[in-house]
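Researcher: Let's run the pair from yesterday's discussion. Sequence first, then tokens, for each.
Model: Starting with the first of the pair.
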Amino acid sequence: MTQSTLSAGTSISGYHYASAALGCAHSYLLPVLQAELAQITLPVKKVFDLGCGNGSVANWFRQQGFDVVGVDPSEAGVVEARAAYPSIPIHQGSCYDPLNERFGTFPLVVSLEVVEHVYAPRLFAQCVRELLEDGGYALISTPYHGYWKNLTLALAGKMDDHFTALWDHGHIKFWSPKTITQLFVDAGLVVERVHRVGRIPPLAKSMLVVVRKSGVDRSP
């Protein structure tokens, strides 16, 4: 997601995107994501992009040979995505909608740099679980937070920039490996591993979380 210039009180449906190109975060997220795709076994190459934004990651998956469906709450993002990638089904929607009833289930769900913007993250995790087939995988990324990174930001006087308090629809949840793991475990999912990416691990920019839905119902 890119920063919005919207006025206060505007619905997140108005979240703006400057273009349909990949963003700077994708330069370190996509190589790790691609390595994970080489490790996991999927019955078919089919993926649901939850919070697809401008469609750039959905298009990346299409280039890897996947059938892709994407949703995003941003009207501007959906318009941008449909114009740039007309062959990919992109729809307006969010994790608060019954997406599985509309689109079915998938062997793979991806959601990059989204959960930190979500006001009710437990509903996000529940949505991921409902979209996954039994045995399916979710690849979720979010900015990394930990003691040494937070201390470094504080000492450098960067906390105001980092917390983005003046960014409409910006980051409102700040996840560590412990809390993001707990989020998905509480939703009845299995967290198989957490990659810290973008810098050396103690100062990592983001995490890529590998989540699996087992055949056993672990939901609350």
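Model: Moving on to the second of the pair.
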Amino acid sequence: MNNFEFYNPVHVIFGAGEINRLGQETKKIGTKALLVSYEKYSFFADQLNKAEKLLKESGVDVVTYFGISENPKMSEVVRGVALCKEKGVDVLIGFGGGSVMDATKLIAAGVLYEGDLWKMVYSRHDDTVNIQPPQNALPVVMIPTVPATGSEMNPTAVVTNDATMEKSYTWSVCMYPKVSIVDPELTCSLPPFVTACSAADTIAHVLEFHLTGFEDAPLNNRIQEGVMLTVLEQVGKVLNNPNDVAARAHLQWASIIALNGISQPGDGWTPMHQLAHVLSAQYNLPHGASLTIIMPAWMKYFYKTRLDRYVQFAQRVFQVGDDIGTKEEIALEGIKRFEEFLKSIGVPTSLKDVGVNEADIPKLADEVEKISFGQDGYLRSRPPASKDDVINVYKLAI
């Protein structure tokens, strides 16, 4: 097992009905809040109205900023920063899914940041000299409404540059939320497709660690497998009964454990995400949907490079028996069952499903190379991925 450091200071308040503590918890941190949410929020307008009411009843002044898209843009962050400065905000509340929470973190950091806000973002993995991640941020309270990114308990944020359509991320200790109120009842209004994409996103976070992480990490692997199994068991219940709060709670906690650092401390490589980020930025796809396209293709291309780990995935997560045949046949059966699961919950599994064809692949690969390749000319992974590897993964996704 490798050496690592682990730190996570987020105060999580978890459970049905806990949204009612929003006002009192926020009042401990600040007196004037920027309430951040989507530009299109009709499906949970009542919840936002309740949040405003709870805050005002606790003596917190509220400034609303409902201007975040499903793939948050730097221009939206810039507008939020300007609003905070104009209104004298001293605490921010992210009320929404990963897009809203990520944008809220960036706004909170941007208020105290000097210079071009895009310089906060690791937009070139081969040149970190010109990257200046934030060192300070206003305090943030998170109210997640989508069980997917775990942004409510990590210090990371993803954003797209409007001008260049480049999508990348930053992280900093200063962006950890102070408090996250995780109320699974808030996820009951999610449309089925969003629920399915969210489940796949949670799986993606631990699947990447499982397949490209430490070699000697039995406990990490068990946690990762436990997260995946929980999602497999619970997502069907939620799709059949959207008001199953117990199942919603299991999905919510799984999404947090997947990406709060505990499932793979010290080694968080996400090569599949790098291909998916480019795809979602160029075609404005939901983040989870871009991952459901990339994951099976990546696995089909790379399974031989870590065959025993793919066999482990097949056997422990999809209960593939030894009677299937050779190790290679077991691994391929696991990939097949995973892809069948994704199709069963109604998410896309090929580029053609979202209108992308083979002629688009060179441009996608160029973007991955430009943004995500290191100084060694490879994408960080186990094994490292070349540009030809990226092209071939995209081709398998057609």
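Researcher: Give me one sentence on the second I can quote.
Model: The radius of gyration is 20 Å.
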